[in-house]
Structures are given as structure tokens and as C-alpha cells.
Amino acid sequence: MAEMQTVSSIGVKSVAKFQATMMAVIYGLAGALMTLFGVIALLFGQGFSLIGMGLGVLILGALFGWVVGYLGGALGAYIYNVVAGKIGGIQIELTKGSPAPAPTPMPTQAPTPSA
Q1: CB–CB of 15/97 below 8 Å?
Q2: Quick count: other Cβ atoms within 10 Å of Cβ 40?
Q3: pLDDT, position 71
Q4: Residue 91: what are its φ and ψ, rounded to 5°?
Q5: For the chain, what percent of residues have pLDDT higher than 90?
Q6: What local confidence, expressed as pLDDT, does residue 94 receive?
Q7: Is residue 106 part of a domain?
Q8: Per-residue pLDDT averaged across 49-55, rounded?
Q9: Cα torsion angle, 102, 104, 110, 111, sign
Q10: Kind and range of the H or E element at 23?
Q11: CB neighbours (10 Å) of residue 18?
Q12: Does any domain span residue 9?
């Protein structure tokens, strides 16, 4: 069993970029779904406003999500680094160079005799 390692600090910019990207993707997918539902509703004679709202969320929501995600990720990483410096960081177990387990072969079924 591997020894426990402590994450003493994390990269503020790294976490900020990752969080920003994740938030932009989530808001972008939400906007794409809203737009799709608006198009489907438009086919049934309604939903024009839903298309506009969906496109707004797709564009502005993704941009807003990126900005908020970047700021939130940077703030969260900064706070983690401050707290970890005072009380210690999160402990994780890392394994180095252990191979992945081999896949279990599927059992083959014997052919059934034909009558």
C-alpha cells in the first residue's frame, strides 16, 4: 500500500482555468438544450421566445459562467492554500507505476448442436 501524501498547495491559475472551462461548458450545454427545445416548440407553433432565451444562455451564459468559474476557482484555490498552510492540506494516496488490472476475458459459449 502506498504512503499518504499531503496536497500542501494547488495552482491558483490552474484551478481557475479548469473551473472556468467546466462552468462555460455546463452553461453552454444548458443554452444548447434550451435552444433545441425552443426549435421543437416552434415546430408546434410556439417557442420563439425560448429560442432567443436559449441563444442568450448559450452565448452570454457561457461567457458569464467562464468569468464566474475563473474567479470562483481562483478564490477557492487561494483559500485552500491559506488554510492548508495553517492546518495542513488534504491527504491522498498516490500509486506510482502500478499497472491497470488486466480485463477479464468474456466466457465463450459453446455452439449448440443443430438437429
Answers
A1: no
A2: 13
A3: 97
A4: -100, 130
A5: 38
A6: 79
A7: no
A8: 74
A9: negative
A10: helix 12-43
A11: 15
A12: yes
Span 101-108, average pLDDT = 71
The number of domains in the chain is 1
Domain of residue 70 covers 4-93
Query: Span 49-60, mean pLDDT?
Result: 77
Residue at 92: amino acid letter: I
Q: Model pTM?
A: 0.68
pLDDT at 47: 60
> Could you tell me the CA-to-CA distances from 108 to 105, 111, 114 in Å, in that order?
9, 9, 18
Q: What is the average pLDDT across 21-28? A: 92
**What single string gives the DSSP state of each residue in 55-86?**
HHIIIIIHHHHHHHHHHHHHHHHHHHHHHHHH
84 domain residue, yes or no: yes
User: Who's near 9: CB < 8 A, 6+ residues apart?
Assistant: 80, 81, 84, 85, 89
In a domain, 72, yes or no: yes
For residue 87, give Cα distances in angstroms to 7, 9, 53, 75: 12, 12, 46, 18
Cell of 13: 491559475
